[in-house]
Amino acid sequence: MKVKTSDIAITAVMPSQYPADDLPEIAMIGRSNVGKSSTINTILNRKNLARVSANPGKTRTINFYIINKEFYLVDLPGYGYAKVARSDRAAWGKMIETYLSTRNALQEVLLLVDIRHTPSEDDVLMYNWLRQYGYGSIVIATKSDKISKNQQQKSMKVIRETLGMPTNAQIVPISSLKKLGIDKLWGALESLFIE
Ligand code: GTP
Ligand code: MG
């Protein structure tokens, strides 16, 4: 896909603030610090559109980015980070759950996992939940620059097995640091719109 325009459209914490048009949405979910915001910047070829931080818990709202005035990429707060205050975690959990379980415009939810690690219990729970809602056809394995090609293959097998991904679901390794895997990810995203 050729990205002609990309912009932050809306920052939301509750349904009344979600976009009012009916454009399709694709959301990114995963542990804090896994690289959701970085992935959005990378595939849009933007440096600082989505705010990135080395400290987990950077993204705290539901951020809708409008692409080519045609669809939204949606950045969500991460889960699973112990140092975020319990009350914040509960509020984000509710905010994310409300969005994921009620949003009609939501076409697909991409689970991001760190390619170096076996998916956590939270990741597995999230993936099962996504499958129940008909999502989960694409998993992104982030930070592929951190390990060799050979290790990547092994890790992707472990990720696929641990999450219990069906054979028709894809894992796409990407590196925001080295800008690797972007075309493959766009290919996977485009296939969502063609079906
Ligand atoms: P929250 O908003 O806290 O949920 O985190 P996030 O998932 O949006 O992660 P973010 O994009 O903010 O990135 C977290 C950290 O990982 C930052 O220090 C990034 O620079 C780093 N990072 C993200 N992608 C990559 C990558 O492909 N390779 C490497 N080496 N580092 C990455
Ligand atoms: Mg973020």
UniProtKB/TrEMBL annotation:
<keyword id="KW-0342">GTP-binding</keyword>
<comment type="similarity">
    <text>Belongs to the TRAFAC class TrmE-Era-EngA-EngB-Septin-like GTPase superfamily. EngB GTPase family.</text>
</comment>
<feature type="domain" description="EngB-type G">
    <location>
        <begin position="22"/>
        <end position="195"/>
    </location>
</feature>
<dbReference type="InterPro" id="IPR027417">
    <property type="entry name" value="P-loop_NTPase"/>
</dbReference>
<dbReference type="GO" id="GO:0005829">
    <property type="term" value="C:cytosol"/>
</dbReference>
<protein>
    <recommendedName>
        <fullName>Probable GTP-binding protein EngB</fullName>
    </recommendedName>
</protein>
<keyword id="KW-0717">Septation</keyword>
<dbReference type="Pfam" id="PF01926">
    <property type="entry name" value="MMR_HSR1"/>
</dbReference>
<keyword id="KW-0132">Cell division</keyword>
<dbReference type="InterPro" id="IPR006073">
    <property type="entry name" value="GTP-bd"/>
</dbReference>
<keyword id="KW-0460">Magnesium</keyword>
<dbReference type="GO" id="GO:0046872">
    <property type="term" value="F:metal ion binding"/>
</dbReference>
<dbReference type="InterPro" id="IPR019987">
    <property type="entry name" value="GTP-bd_ribosome_bio_YsxC"/>
</dbReference>
<dbReference type="InterPro" id="IPR030393">
    <property type="entry name" value="G_ENGB_dom"/>
</dbReference>
<dbReference type="GO" id="GO:0000917">
    <property type="term" value="P:division septum assembly"/>
</dbReference>
<keyword id="KW-0479">Metal-binding</keyword>
<keyword id="KW-0547">Nucleotide-binding</keyword>
<dbReference type="InterPro" id="IPR005225">
    <property type="entry name" value="Small_GTP-bd"/>
</dbReference>
<keyword id="KW-0131">Cell cycle</keyword>
<dbReference type="GO" id="GO:0005525">
    <property type="term" value="F:GTP binding"/>
</dbReference>
<comment type="function">
    <text>Necessary for normal cell division and for the maintenance of normal septation.</text>
</comment>
